[in-house]
Amino acid sequence: MTLAACQLAPRRLERWRQVPEFPAYEVSSAARVRRISTGKVLKPHFVFGGYPVVSLRRDGQTFKRMTDRLRAAAFGNLREDEQLDHRRGKAASRAEIVHGSRVRKHSSSYKGVSFVRARGRWYASIRHRGKTRAIGFFDNECEAAKAYDCAARKQWGPAAFQNFARP
To answer: What residue spans define the domains of the chain?
Structure first.
């Protein structure tokens, strides 16, 4: 199919469902939002980290919502305590999303590991609810990373970011 034919072809299998919490709007499986009464598709704005956001009205108030989250709420059967994890493309709790991501660069290439010059050893630690818990000091970087992985699995289960793939 040529490029011109692709541009003129209608969107295939685009399904529409009512937006939860906003009965006057529908969202499509392609994350487009339209007003039911007019059929007009809303133009998204790109404000929150580059994600498309639309403005929806209800009871005289305007609410801004991400189109991907509206689609996930309508098609993904998200529970009350779940959000859409954009990296993995599935529903997850906030803790699973936060702890499944890489964080800032440390003195080590492994998460949760740093080198303590005063002791000349590698230090492993893990953070939970704003507090740092020490795991211990290790002679080499890999041992410290493996200790972090073990603590992370205990702390967050399968949602934990691990330095090494689990066998």
So the answer is: 11-77, 97-159
Helices (H) and strands (E) in the chain, counts: 4, 11
Q: For residues 30-56, give the mean pLDDT.
A: 88
Nearest to 122 by CA among 151, 144, 148: 144
Residue 102: predicted pLDDT:
54
Q: How much is the pLDDT for 76?
A: 75
Question: Which residues, 6 or more positions from 52, have their beta carbon under 8 angstroms from its beta carbon?
Answer: 31, 44, 45, 46, 66, 67, 68
pTM: 0.49
Kindly compute the dihedral angle of the four CA atoms of residues 32, 33, 36, 38, in this order, to the nearest 10 degrees: -80
pLDDT digits (tens, 9 = 90+) for 94-125: 887 777 665 444 578 888 898 888 888 999 99
- Any idea which fold 11-77 has? Homing Intron 3 (I-Ppo) Encoded Endonuclease; Chain A (3.90.75)
Establish how many alpha carbons lie within 13 A of residue 75's alpha carbon, considering only the half-sphere containing its beta carbon.
19
The listed CATH number (3.40.50.2300, 3.30.70.20, 3.30.420.40, 3.30.730.10) that belongs to domain 97-159? 3.30.730.10
